[in-house]
Amino acid sequence: MTLLHSYAKGVGFRRWLLRSDCPPLLKQCHNLLNKVYNFSPSDGTSVAEPHPKKIPSQLAKLLGSSDHRTIHLHSRIEAPTGAYAVKGTPGRGNSFVCFRLSGEREWKAGEILYIFEQGNKVKIVLQQLVELDQPEQDPFCGWWGGGFEAKLVSASVSSDLKIIDQECIVGHAAYWNLVDGLAAVVNLSQVKDSVTVKESKIHDRLLQE
Fold first, then answer.
1. 18, 21, 126, 189: most buried by Cβ count inside 10 Å?
2. Is residue 71 part of a domain?
């Protein structure tokens, strides 16, 4: 009961801090604690509630003459599973993603640097991981047929930034630094789909038996 009582007291105290008649000094302490732990009730976790922030010079240069006053930055946005987050953002989310542009057959991997919304349209700015000059030498290419879509790529990233639509993101990517300037990336959404299909086949087989 001690843990339950402590939790109940903590909840009651936090609710009191949010009341309009809470003493100003305690409200200031509440704000300081939120700042220390990087917590904000509207920290850009939802596309529907953009959080106004100053446009970084790198992004402003990339956007050129676009009206920056209509742009809202996000730290992260919701994904089909989890969240897509800007590189270096603490808390929930993954900055490595797989993406496929219109007309392309195969996904590429990159790391998200900025997420912004303009005119109710969400855009992703990322740095693409450099593909190998000879992809046929990729030892992972033979595993794609089994549902494990992994790639051997360069550990370096392209200096050119890409702006893509949110719809171009295929899913999360896992990234591992290897040796000799190489890295491995895995399309996690495809791995999940493959596992789901295999589980379904096993379930059907058990029912038949």
1. 126
2. yes
pLDDT tens digits, one per residue of 110-134: 999 999 998 889 999 999 999 988 7
CA distance 75 to 63: 18
What is the spatial distance between Cα 58 and Cα 126, in angstroms, rounded to a whole number? 12
Domain ranges, residue 18: 2-36
Contact (CB, 8 A) for 85 and 75 = yes
Name the E strands within the chain.
71-74, 76-78, 83-85, 96-99, 108-118, 121-129, 150-154, 157-165, 169-177, 182-187
17 and 87 co-located in one domain: no
Let me know whether 89 and 155 are in one domain: yes
At 20-29, the pLDDT tens digits run: 677 777 666 6
Q: Are 128 and 162 in contact (CB under 8 A)?
A: yes
What pTM, to 2 d.p., does this model score?
0.66
Instruction: Count the domains in the chain.
Output: 2
Pairing of strands 96-99, 169-177: antiparallel
In-domain check, residue 46: no
Residues sharing a CB contact under 8 Å with residue 153, sequence separation 6 or more, in sequence order? 109, 129, 130, 131, 132, 182, 183, 184, 185
Helices (H), the chain: 2-17, 24-36, 57-63, 188-208
